[in-house]
Amino acid sequence: MRLHPLALLAALTTLTIADVEVTSPAAGASIPAGAMTVTWQDSGTAPALTALTTYTIQLVVGGNDASTQTPLYTVANAGLFSAGSTVTATIPAGLAGSTANGYFLKFTSVASEGGTVINYSSRFTMTGMTGTTPATALTAITALGGSTAGPPTVNSVNNGNAAGGAGGAVGGAEFTVPYQLQTGLTKYAPMQPVPGTKITANGYTPLHPTSAFTIATTWMPAPVVQTTLTASQTYSVSSMENTAAAQSNPTGDMAKFLARWKD
């Protein structure tokens, strides 16, 4: 039996995608602030979960576009897939507001062959929240019209871009992979945020979760990362000539006063 070229391409492509399917929280669920249990399973898309080593789970609020998302809390950091498919964390109530279907989980997995894959859970509601949802995130959530579908998967498993090496074309997905989870000779850092025109925040919220570190007690091995690329700014700046006429030089006492400083 001969496969059509497109069917063969689809079959080969499937083998390169690692998928984690989050089963809890379920789509549209209402989860009270406090203890939250996250469970997942193999979605059936090759390779199996056994091909993944560690994972990081973040609670995120916002839309499906990365620019409208705000990571709020690290549910798990450097967890081991070999330890099971359930993790429990305590979610503080003051992170954001109880925005309907505004929350989802960002599940970043490290593959044993190199690189990462980011899967997102379905959307759910956090109840009993006492904080304020960022305006950008709230606008994006409202635009979704109540949909419970999370953002699409970002597959960067040993494909030469996000974390698998220095080659390949650079798009936008590479810069969404947490820095400490990237491998290979090239690493990618997100763009610096652009300051707003108004101060609207009443409290401080970190842009990214903290990362673990180990204090060196012996000589460290030579670094292998050759370069770090930072995402380019996507905003533009325009300027115009000031056509106002220059003011005349001061006269009288002011002119005498300024003349004292000419030497």
UniProtKB/TrEMBL annotation:
GO biological process: (1->6)-beta-D-glucan biosynthetic process; cell wall biogenesis; fungal-type cell wall organization
Signal sequence, renumbered to the chain: 1-18
Annotated keywords: Signal
Keyword Amino-acid biosynthesis applies: no
This protein's GO CC annotations: extracellular region
Domain Yeast cell wall synthesis Kre9/Knh1-like N-terminal positions: 24-125
Pfam families in the record: Kre9_KNH, Kre9_KNH1_C
Family annotation (InterPro entries): Kre9/Knh1, Kre9/Knh1-like_N, Kre9/Knh1_C
Domain Yeast cell wall synthesis Kre9/Knh1 C-terminal: 174-251
The name this protein goes by in its record: Uncharacterized protein
Naturally occurring in which organism (per UniProt): Meristemomyces frigidus
